[in-house]
Automatic annotation (TrEMBL):
Top-level division of the source organism's lineage: Eukaryota
Lineage per the UniProt record: Eukaryota, Metazoa, Ecdysozoa, Nematoda, Chromadorea
Annotated source species: Caenorhabditis brenneri (Nematode worm)
Domain SET intervals: 111-223
Name the record gives this protein: SET domain-containing protein
Amino acid sequence: MVATRSQTRGRKSHYYVVAANLEAIEILEEGEFDMNNREVLGEISDAAYERLGVKKDGRLKFDTNKHIVCLDCQAHYKEKEGCKLHPIYWVENSFASQGGRRLPYAERTIPPEYFYLSEDTIAGQGIKAARKIPVGLVFGPYKGIKTPTEECRNPGYSWHVTIKGKLFTVDAFDKTKGNWLRYVNSPNEETGGNMIPFQYQEKIYYKTIKVIQKDEEVLVWYGEQYGKELRNLRASRQ
Ligand SMILES: C[S@@+](CC[C@H](N)C(=O)[O-])C[C@H]1O[C@@H](n2cnc3c(N)ncnc32)[C@H](O)[C@@H]1O
């Protein structure tokens, strides 16, 4: 969605993805926003802006490979940019060569401007916010070893993905293959999550659905099956 400098080279970019009071993001034309209250997250080209927010015909069958859902509008959109009223901002996975080979691959992929690894979490290692993070940011994709579902050995570290109609799992247990999203824990209740997972073009991404305060833990609900396991675990401890 956000045009990189190379894509915009030679032409002026007029639109910016901005976070108002760091709460939610929106796309505004330069001059429409007051820099005092807003942070610019990135630029967007005129062409990308023009494609935004075209709600698809309600009869259109939802296709995870082509469409983005907007939960606020209960609608789906054809373009990666999503909905104009509730836009999303794709944050690229990063890879830090510094930290050397001492750190596992998974740890070196944490985008340091947004997150850090912590031991002071709901369970074992987890991810915390290095800054306040607004609603609407998309992180990922979740990287790991693609396995046929029936052979998946680490369900706690694996997401289902549908590829050409077939169900697979992406297993990120191995820190040399899985990236930083493998560290994100689950809340104890569904409503406790501040990000949600979704599939887009055969990959899993996490999107912020609540403002995440600095030093707050990032939590993604793993699904009803895992929720049941958590409840059973808690019951067995009582
Ligand atoms: C994707 S990993 C998260 C990173 C993990 N905490 C670690 O240290 O590697 C998922 C695993 O973390 C643990 N976990 C995540 N959320 C939890 C929770 N709310 N309660 C208990 N264990 C949790 C479970 O062992 C689960 O299989």
